[in-house]
């Protein structure tokens, strides 16, 4: 289920929820419950909805980690981190979140202007 014009706008399909959506849509196309065009339309709406939902989040994250590798290609930064601790702030009044720590993480940063659909 790949489109030949894969762009930055489709970045969120690589998240866990996006991956599961792609798997489900592929199964539905294979079983004849959806056409491929319908599945692509659903994925395009997912891309738009995911980006819109993220733009409404007021929380901020602080990441502390050891930088293992980094690279910059096609206006996209990718960081591979070790010994990672993530702290969320401004999540809501009276709401405290514990730090989230893990051994390894990958962070992908994209200029938000690149995520806007071309007009």
UniProtKB/TrEMBL annotation:
Source domain of life: Eukaryota
Pfam families on file: TFIIA_gamma_C (PF02751), TFIIA_gamma_N (PF02268)
Gene Ontology annotations for the cellular component aspect, listed alphabetically: transcription factor TFIIA complex
Keywords: Nucleus, Transcription, Transcription regulation
One Gene Ontology biological process: transcription initiation at RNA polymerase II promoter
Positions of the Transcription initiation factor IIA gamma subunit C-terminal domain: 64-109
Known function: TFIIA is a component of the transcription machinery of RNA polymerase II and plays an important role in transcriptional activation.
Name used for this protein in its record: Transcription initiation factor IIA subunit 2
């Amino acid at each position: 289920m790949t489109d030949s014009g894969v762009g930055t706008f489709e970045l969120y399909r690589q998240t866990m929820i996006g991956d599961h959506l792609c798997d489900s849509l592929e199964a539905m196309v294979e079983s004849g419950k959806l056409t491929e065009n319908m599945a692509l339309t659903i994925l395009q709406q997912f891309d738009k909805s995911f980006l819109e939902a993220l733009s409404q989040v007021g929380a901020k994250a602080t990441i502390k980690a050891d930088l293992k590798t980094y690279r910059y290609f096609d206006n996209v930064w990718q960081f591979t981190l070790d010994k990672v601790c993530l702290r969320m702030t401004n999540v809501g009044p009276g709401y405290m979140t514990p730090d989230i720590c893990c051994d390894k993480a990958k962070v992908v940063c994209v200029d938000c202007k690149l995520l806007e659909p071309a007009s």
